[in-house]
C-alpha cells in the first residue's frame, strides 16, 4: 500500500481578505467622526473603582484595625479582589479599577457586593455591613459606572476572566524613553601616570567608555615616553558614540588603561544630566579637560586615597539633531530627530482598531494536556507602544480595542504582532524546564506591517491579515488577524509637501554616521528599549520587543539571498522587455509596426525638440494605464516573494542556527561546500565583468599594439566623419542599419564591435 502523501503547505490560504465588521463609521467612510470608537465594536463594562476605606474606631479600636486589608467584589459568578496591603492601618488605600464585561450575557446577576476584609482573619469583614448584616462605623470611597473601551480606566482595569493574573493580562499603553546619541570626541591626554616598570617600554594606551552595560574602547595608541618622567602625553583624536535614554540612570565612566601590562591608569565619572545638549544643528561647544583619578590600594596610610593620574581632553555632549534608530531603516515608524525643535508639522492621525483573531493554532498545553492559547497583541508606531488585554484560553479572541497615533511622515510603518502569553503561571509547557529565575518568553504567533503611504486618506480599511511564522520546519500559518485601519489627513498640501523633504533629519546628510555605527547604535537602542519596557507593569519581555523591532543580527541566509536576487532582477526586467520589443521590431515580424517605428524615429531625429516631451508622455501614459490594475489593499507579507514555501530543511536550519554555529560535523561541512559553490559562481561573474572592463583599458595601455593602432585609426576616421557630416544623418544611418530587413543580415554572426572587444587582452592572463 503506497504511503500517504504529506499535505502541502501551499494549500493554506496566505491571501489578504476584506472583511465587513459591524463597526462605527462604516456607513460614511469619508466622514471623520468625533466618536472615540469608530473602528471597533462597542463593548460595555461595569466599572468599579475602589479608592480607600476610613474605619473609625468607636468602642473597641481593635474592631476597626485591619492588619492586612483588601477589598473583595462579588457580582454573579465573578469575584475580584484588590491587592493586600501589608501595613496595618485604619485608613487603607488601594485606588484600583475593576471592569466586568456586560456583553454576551457574561455578567450574570444584578447585585454588586463590596466587602472589606482582613487577610489575617477571613472571618473579620468590614464595610457597609459586617458578617451579621449590622452597620459598622466607617466608610468606603468607591465609584461605580457603566462605560466602554474608550474609558480612561479601561487600560488600567482588572477585567473579568483574568483570574489572578491581572498583572500580566491587562491592556497597557507604553511610551519609549527619549533616546539621545551620547558623543565622546577624544582630543588628547596629558600627564598620564604610568608605572615605571621599564622605561624603555612603549605603553599601549586606550580609553574605555562604560555606560550601563555598554562598553566601547578607543584604538590603541603607543606614544613615545619621556625617560626622565613617569608621565605620557597622547593625541587619540577619536569618537565614541553611545545611545542614552531619559531618565539617565547610569553615569558615563571613562577609564584610561595601559593594555600592555593590564594596568588601570585612572578613571573619571560624568553625570549625563550635566552634559551639554545639542538641540539645533550648530557645532557643539562641550570641549573640556577632566581629571583622571585612581583610588590607591596600598598600605593603610594611602589606602582609599584618591590620586590624580592625569587629564583627559575631550568633547562630550548629548546630540539631539539625529534620529536615533531603533528599527531597520526599511520600515521605520518614526523619522524625527530627538530634539522637539526639529520636529516637522503634524500631518494627520493614524487610527487602529484591533478587532479579533481567528483560527489561532495551539501554543501550549494546560492541565490535563488540554491545548490552549492566551493571545494578546502589541502595536508599535513611533515612540508609542500599545498592548491589548490577554484573552485567556481562546483560539478566536475578541479584543475590539482602538488606539490612535499622531503622524508626522506618511512614509512610515506600523507594526502589529500577536503573542501567546506565557507569564500566567498556570501552564505546563516547555518553559517549565527553564531557569526559574528567568521569565518564560512569550511565543510568537505572527506579525503584520502596514505602510501608511499605501493607505488612502480618510478611508477605513477592514482587512483580515494572515499571521505567518517562519520556523525551522518550514513556513506556517498560525491564524488570521482582523484589523481596521484609518489614516486621517489634516491637510493634503502638507501631506504632499513631505514628499519633497529629506527622509531623515538634515544632519544625517551633512555629517552622516557610517553604516557600522548605525547598525551598532540601533542594537544599543533596541537593548535599552527592551530593558526599560521590561520593567513596566505589565512588562513587555525582551523577546517581544526584539520581535517587534526586528532587531535580529543580519546573518547570511540562502533564502533571503535568493529572494533579494530575484527582487534585483525584477527591478531591471523592464530592460529585457525593451530589448525583446526592439528585437521583435527589427525582425520585421509585423512590417506595419516596424515601418511606423521607423517613421517615428525619422521624425524625432529631424525634430529633436520632441524627444523629451515624447519620453515624459510615454511615462505618463504608462502610469495612467496601470491605474485600473492598482492594488486595492495595502501589501502584506508574501511567502512566494520571500521564497519561504520552497526553502528546504537544510536552508532553514542554517538560517535559524546561532552565531557562532551550534552544529557540528557533517552539517557544517555540507554548508561550507554549498557556500563554496555559491561563492565560486559569484567569483566567476565578478571576474567576467572585470575582464570586460580590463579589455577596454588595455586599448589605452598598448597591451596589444595592433589593436591599439586599429583603435587609433577608427578614432581618427570617426572624428573626420562626425566633423563633416551632421549628427542627424549619422543617427539616421545608425538607426536604419539597426532595423534593416532580415535578408540584409548575416545570421548568427556577432557584430564587429563585439568581435573586436573579445580579442583584446585582460589581466586574467596574470592570475594564478
Structure description:
This protein is an alpha+beta fold and 768 residues long. The protein has 14 helices and 30 strands. Strands 11, 14, 15, 18, 19 and 20 form a six-stranded mixed β-sheet that branches. Strands 1-29-30-21-26 form a five-stranded antiparallel β-sheet, with no helix packed on it. It is globular and about 115 Å long.
Q: In terms of topology, how is this protein built?
A:
Blueprint: E1 17-18, E2 45-54, E3 69-75, E4 78-81, E5 93-101, E6 113-118, E7 121-126, E8 139-147, E9 158-159, H1 166-169, E10 172-175, E11 179-193, E12 205-211, E13 214-217, E14 231-234, E15 238-245, E16 252-258, E17 263-270, E18 276-278, E19 287-295, E20 306-319, E21 348-358, E22 364-365, E23 371-372, E24 375-381, E25 384-387, E26 398-407, E27 413-420, E28 443-451, E29 460-471, E30 474-489, H2 492-497, H3 507-510, H4 515-533, H5 542-549, H6 558-571, H7 573-586, H8 591-606, H9 611-625, H10 649-655, H11 666-701, H12 705-724, H13 727-738, H14 752-758
Parallel strand pairs: 5-9, 18-20
Antiparallel strand pairs: 1-29, 2-5, 2-8, 3-4, 3-6, 6-7, 10-25, 11-14, 11-15, 11-20, 12-13, 12-16, 16-17, 19-20, 21-26, 21-30, 22-23, 24-25, 24-27, 27-28, 29-30
Helix pairs in contact: 4-5, 8-13, 11-12
